[in-house]
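Project standup — Tuesday

K.O.: blocked on the structure for the chain from last sprint. Re-posting the sequence here as requested.
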Amino acid sequence: MSMDAVFKALADPSRRELLDRLHARSGQSLGELCEGLRMTRQAVTKHLAVLEEANLVATVRRGREKLHYLNPVPIHEIGARWIGKYQLGPLQALAELKTSLEKPDDES
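H.V.: unblocked you, prediction finished:
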């Protein structure tokens, strides 16, 4: 598995949404993952294939059903390689400052 494949998989918002759904509840079937999405079943299948190729999703067959599970290890490796080497504390403080500056005055 290459980091390039992981970055490519994460670059698409539809694939990130599928990962978010699996993070919320791992072990979903294709039908469950398709519920409420504005994508065809075929599109979801193609996105899942990219995620599997990047090792971000693992599958297990249970009878006729294929269940999809999130594999967070590649994302952790990216975090360790590309984020961890920077000082996380100062970056977090800057992110919080940016968020607070973006809020409209009536939310403060």
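K.O.: great, moving the ticket to review. DSSP finds six helices and two strands in the chain. The mean pLDDT is 89.
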